[in-house]
């Protein structure tokens, strides 16, 4: 036998693959079989569509934001309102579908990683709705700064397990979820929260979020009679971005622009920008993709004001789109993102998630570049309620007494 | 034939299973870890697994994670693994490296294989690299005459056992339980069931690892496996000792008992 006998599964160009312990391969193959069947099964698709309509609140609307657009070089700016979904972000799209798949596989328990809570809350929600046991792994550092989200998940019936190893943040929560999975795979499905991980996760999670772009493309055509000039989204793991990009990939004139967590600036080394030149192709969490790593292949910790973008690796399809030149990726600093956060709140009465504020900052930059005739579609992937404490501190809006009384509720979720 | 393949054959000729012990390089220091590996060999381990500490060890439990992260914090480098290999080879201790894939990928697959071969290493165990993704490694290992030790798990289908063992060399690593290193003790019958399933597809020696935690178990597994592999147990001796000398003393004791166990 030669290695030619092993087909290279799940690749986006050179990226992706399945770098996992052998013990998990059977579960990945089982998942692949069930999700392929499900995606061609009218019953599954009907059930999912019904949940989207009656539980999530799909289709999500689009909103034009003219007062915010004044800060975007006068370009027309349209938001896709994933923030209005039940649980407050796009994450629900994926977890409901994976929840249905879990039941079809005859498994009774789900596990998930979470940074600050959005994906954990969404998974706990789906588990409650579908009667599944649920365990959420969360870095100790994040459980402390996200006490309210921990309580929220527990209210929904989930067990939240703080992770005390490594950097005790999102990356380590993913490691711990894999360790649970390899132990309990007989009855447990791992609801991975973004478009990375071993195949079929990157493709499957993308397909479950693809509805964002499918709806938005038609909504923009209906309202403006043309396609947008650019589609913008923030990129942590990359699920909301791939969700809105994917339907536009064949529209060659539509620029696809991903905004990464630029942290304190690329030159500071404290950022989460895998595509800025400091990340290099490597393997993390089961996929070959761009990774922040040192010369020995050890993962470097990322930094971002937004926990959802604070991740050292990125979905392999983004790596492919980047190298193929089909999508562009730029870092947005904490400072720029918080300015966009403030502006959207003040000009439109919408509090964005700090993650999504990176996409808004991108619109401010690209709008000025393209000018008044441009039409920009921005994925507002989540709402900012979870970020009130962080933003309040950032802008000095919390007086000391109130701050002492408040539990921190800063944002930590991978998008 | 590599030194590890050799020592496995010798053990078989003696009518017993071989004992293989794991320690990560760099814990508590590079020097001390090499001394501990040599002590382990001296105390009766037929072969050593040199662990390459990695920041995100998916299949390791708390004990090995602790040792690996302390080694990284103390500044261990990939080059230290090559150096450890060279010293073990000089001392006549057969050994393989155990490494997650990314550090090898980053170092350069062919360059890593060449450096290991040059140092006198027998090959590499790849816990998160399945043959499906291993074309480069298989090619480099063939070129440099290194053993390619892939894992087989209780969940592996007969088809995967066949295809995996077909590209494996040296020995097959049978992951005896579903779980991470050190998570729970293996039961003899479940390990035996897996070994029997693997034997249907290959004549390679089969080592049973992950879940072996005492001499009694080692003896039980030695009855049907060709090698007994311990990782968490030796690492625990170093992690839980106040001083290096004390850790190495405990390590010798434990390995001595296991070496006696595989000879029962």
TrEMBL record, chain A:
It catalyses: (1S,2R)-1-C-(indol-3-yl)glycerol 3-phosphate + L-serine = D-glyceraldehyde 3-phosphate + L-tryptophan + H2O. Pathway: Amino-acid biosynthesis; L-tryptophan biosynthesis; L-tryptophan from chorismate: step 5/5. GO terms for molecular function: tryptophan synthase activity. One of its GO terms (cellular component) is cytoplasm. Transmembrane segments: none annotated. The keyword NAD does not apply. Keywords: Amino-acid biosynthesis, Aromatic amino acid biosynthesis, Lyase, Pyridoxal phosphate, Tryptophan biosynthesis. CDD domains: Trp-synth_B. Belongs to the TrpB family. This is Tryptophan synthase beta chain. Tetramer of two alpha and two beta chains. The keyword Lyase applies. It is an enzyme of class 4 (lyase). The beta subunit is responsible for the synthesis of L-tryptophan from indole and L-serine. Residues 58-382 form the Tryptophan synthase beta chain-like PALP domain. Its EC number is 4.2.1.20. Its cofactor is pyridoxal 5'-phosphate. The modification N6-(pyridoxal phosphate)lysine is found at residue 91.
TrEMBL record, chain B:
GO terms for cellular component: cytosol. The active site is at residues 49, 60. Keywords: Amino-acid biosynthesis, Aromatic amino acid biosynthesis, Lyase, Tryptophan biosynthesis. One of its GO terms (molecular function) is tryptophan synthase activity. It catalyses: (1S,2R)-1-C-(indol-3-yl)glycerol 3-phosphate + L-serine = D-glyceraldehyde 3-phosphate + L-tryptophan + H2O. Pfam families: Trp_syntA (PF00290). InterPro entries: Aldolase_TIM (IPR013785), RibuloseP-bd_barrel (IPR011060), Trp_synthase_alpha_AS (IPR018204), Trp_synthase_suA (IPR002028). Its EC number is 4.2.1.20. Pathway: Amino-acid biosynthesis; L-tryptophan biosynthesis; L-tryptophan from chorismate: step 5/5. The keyword Isomerase does not apply. The alpha subunit is responsible for the aldol cleavage of indoleglycerol phosphate to indole and glyceraldehyde 3-phosphate. Tetramer of two alpha and two beta chains. Belongs to the TrpA family. PANTHER family: TRYPTOPHAN SYNTHASE ALPHA CHAIN, CHLOROPLASTIC, TRYPTOPHAN SYNTHASE, ALPHA CHAIN. This is Tryptophan synthase alpha chain. It comes from Metallococcus carri. The gene is trpA.
């Amino acid at each position: 036998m030669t290695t030619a006998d092993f087909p290279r599964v799940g690749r986006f160009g050179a990226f992706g693959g399945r770098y996992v312990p052998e013990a998990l391969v059977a579960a990945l193959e089982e998942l692949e079989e069930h999700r392929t069947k499900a995606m061609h099964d009218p019953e599954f698709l009907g059930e999912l569509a019904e949940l989207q309509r009656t539980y999530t609140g799909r289709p999500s609307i689009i909103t034009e934001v003219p007062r915010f657009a004044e800060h975007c070089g006068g370009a027309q700016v349209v938001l896709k309102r994933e923030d209005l979904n039940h649980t407050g972000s796009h994450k629900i799209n994926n977890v409901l579908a994976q929840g249905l798949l879990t039941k079809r596989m005859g498994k009774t328990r789900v596990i998930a990683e979470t940074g600050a809570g959005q994906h954990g809350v969404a998974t706990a929600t789906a588990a409650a709705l579908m009667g599944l046991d649920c365990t959420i792994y969360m870095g100790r550092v994040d459980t402390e700064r996200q006490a309210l989200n921990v309580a929220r998940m527990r209210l929904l019936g989930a067990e939240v397990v703080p992770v005390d190893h490594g950097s005790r943040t999102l990356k380590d929560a993913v490691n711990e979820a894999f360790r649970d999975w390899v132990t309990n795979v007989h009855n447990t499905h791992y609801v991975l929260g973004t478009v990375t991980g071993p195949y079929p996760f990157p493709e499957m999670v993308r397909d479950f979020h693809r509805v964002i772009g499918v709806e938005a493309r038609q909504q923009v055509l209906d309202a403006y009679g043309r396609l947008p000039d650019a589609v913008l989204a923030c990129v942590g793991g990359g699920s909301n971005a791939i969700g809105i990009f994917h339907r536009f990939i064949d529209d060659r004139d539509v620029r696809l622009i991903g905004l990464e967590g630029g942290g304190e600036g690329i030159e500071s080394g404290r950022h989460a920008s895998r595509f800025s030149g400091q990340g290099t192709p490597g393997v993390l969490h089961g996929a070959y993709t761009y990774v922040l790593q040192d010369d020995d292949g050890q993962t470097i910790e990322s930094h971002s004001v937004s926990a959802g973008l604070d991740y050292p690796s990125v979905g392999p399809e983004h790596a492919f789109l980047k190298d193929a030149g089909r999508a562009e990726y730029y870092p947005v600093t904490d400072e720029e993102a918080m300015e966009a956060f403030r502006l959207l709140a003040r000009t439109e009465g919408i509090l964005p998630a700090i993650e999504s504020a990176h996409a808004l900052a991108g619109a401010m930059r690209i709008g000025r570049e393209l000018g008044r005739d441009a039409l920009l579609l921005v994925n507002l992937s989540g709402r900012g309620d979870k970020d009130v404490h962080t933003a309040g501190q950032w802008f000095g809006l919390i007086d000391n007494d109130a701050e002492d009384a408040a539990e921190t509720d800063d944002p930590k979720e991978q998008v | 034939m590599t030194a590890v393949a050799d020592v496995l054959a010798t053990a078989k000729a003696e009518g017993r299973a071989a004992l293989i012990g794991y320690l990560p390089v760099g814990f508590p220091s590079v020097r001390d870890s090499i001394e501990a590996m040599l002590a382990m060999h001296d105390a009766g381990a037929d072969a050593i697994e040199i662990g390459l500490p990695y920041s995100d060890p998916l299949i390791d439990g708390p004990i090995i994670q602790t040792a690996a992260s302390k080694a990284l914090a103390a500044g261990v480098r990939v080059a230290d693994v090559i150096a450890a290999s060279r010293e073990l080879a000089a001392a006549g201790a057969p050994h393989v490296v155990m490494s997650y894939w990314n550090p090898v990928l980053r170092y350069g697959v062919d360059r890593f294989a060449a450096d290991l071969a040059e140092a006198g290493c027998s090959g590499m165990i790849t816990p998160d690299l399945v043959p499906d993704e291993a074309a480069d490694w298989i090619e480099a290992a063939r070129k440099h005459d290194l053993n390619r030790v892939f894992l087989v798990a209780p969940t592996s289908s007969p088809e995967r056992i066949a295809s995996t063992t077909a590209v494996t060399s040296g020995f097959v690593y049978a992951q005896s339980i579903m779980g991470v290193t050190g998570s729970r003790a293996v039961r003899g019958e479940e390990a035996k069931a897996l070994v029997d399933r693997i034997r249907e597809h290959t004549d390679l020696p089969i080592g049973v690892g992950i879940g072996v935690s005492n001499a009694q178990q080692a003896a039980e597994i030695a009855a049907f496996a060709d090698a007994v592999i311990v990782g968490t147990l030796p690492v625990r001796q170093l992690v839980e000792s106040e001083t290096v000398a004390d850790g190495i003393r405990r390590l010798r004791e434990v390995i001595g008992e296991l070496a006696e166990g595989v000879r029962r």
